[in-house]
Write a structure and sequence with these properties.
Elements (H helix, E strand, L loop, with lengths): L13 H12 L11 E4 L8 H10 L4 E5 L1 H5 L1 H4 L2 H7 L3 E6 L10 H7 L8 H17 L4 E4 L11 H18 L4 E5 L5 H11 L4 E5 L1 H6 L5 H8 L3 E6 L1 E3 L9 E3 L8 H9 L7 E3 L7 H13 L2
Parallel strand pairs: 1-2, 1-10, 2-3, 3-4, 4-5, 5-6, 6-7, 7-10
Antiparallel strand pairs: 8-9
Helix pairs in contact: 1-13, 2-5, 7-8, 9-11, 11-12
Length: 303
Amino acid sequence: MRSHETAVQPFHSAKKIQEESKKIMNASIPTIPINRLGVCSWSLRPVDAAELVTAVQRLGLSKIQLALGPVIESPDAFGDVLARIDDAGIKVASGMLEAVGEDYSTLETIKSTGGVRPDEHWPATRDRAERVADLAGNHGIELVTLHAGFIPHHADDPTRSLVLERLRTLADIFAERNVRVGLETGQESATTLLEALHALDHPSVGVNFDPANMILYDMGDPVEAIRMLAAHVVQVHAKDAIKTSEPGTWGSEVPLGSGQVDWNAFIAEVESMGRPVDVVIEREAGEDRETDILVAKRRLRGS
C-alpha cells in the first residue's frame, strides 16, 4: 500500500485480458482458489462507496481489503460503505490503516515520514488507530494491515526500540477489539522483520506479505523472504515489480506477471503454508487498473 487515491476508473481492455489468458492456459501453474482472492479498495480509486461496490462486482470478486481511514474521515462518500459491501454479498477480508503524514514521493521521504517512526505524527497516528480499531472491532473485521515504517536493521539502534514500542501500543489497541495486526513487508529485509516480530512477541501481530514491495524497496528475493516469514503470514498482497537500476531510488510497479516476482514459486510457497491465507490483488500504478486486476485474477486462478 502507498496511499488512498480517488479518480475515475477506466474500464478494462478485453483484448489485453484475452492475450494474457491464452498465456496462462498454455501452462501448468500453481493457483489460488477464487474464494481466497480479493482486491484492495484503494487500487480501484473509487470516489464513493457505490462506485467501489460496483467495481468489485464488475471484477467478479467477492472479497475486499478496505481502506478504513476514508470510512471515518470522508463519511459523505464512504460512511455507508460497510453496509453496501454487506448488501452486495462481499466479504471484508481485512482493513487497512494508513499512518498520518506518509509521503511516498521518494525512498528518502517515506523513510522519514512512514509508519510510526515520525515523532510529530505519532499522536495523530495513534488517534487514527484508535478510531480504526473501533470501526474494525464493531464490524467484525478481524485483521487490519499497516506499514510499520522502516525498522532499523541493527538491533542496538535506539530507533528500533522506539518503533517496536509504538507497534506494541498499536497491537494492544487492536487486540482489545479482537483485531489482529498485519505488518506489511518491504521497508526492511525479511531478517530484520523476523527479528522485530520475535522482539515484539505479540500474539496479535503477523505479516501482510507483499512480494512486489520486497523488489520496490530492494529488500531481497520475495520467494526466499516468504519462506522465512511463512509462520507469521496472515495475508498476501498480489502485486508485481521490477527492481531499480539506480540504488536509492524506487523500483517500478508493473502488471502482475510482467515483473520479477516468480509467481509459480511464490504461489507454491503460499499454498504450502498449511493454512488458508487470503490473497488480495493490489495495483497502485497504471491507468487501466481494472484490466490489470483482471489479468492478475486470471493468472492467480489459472484461467
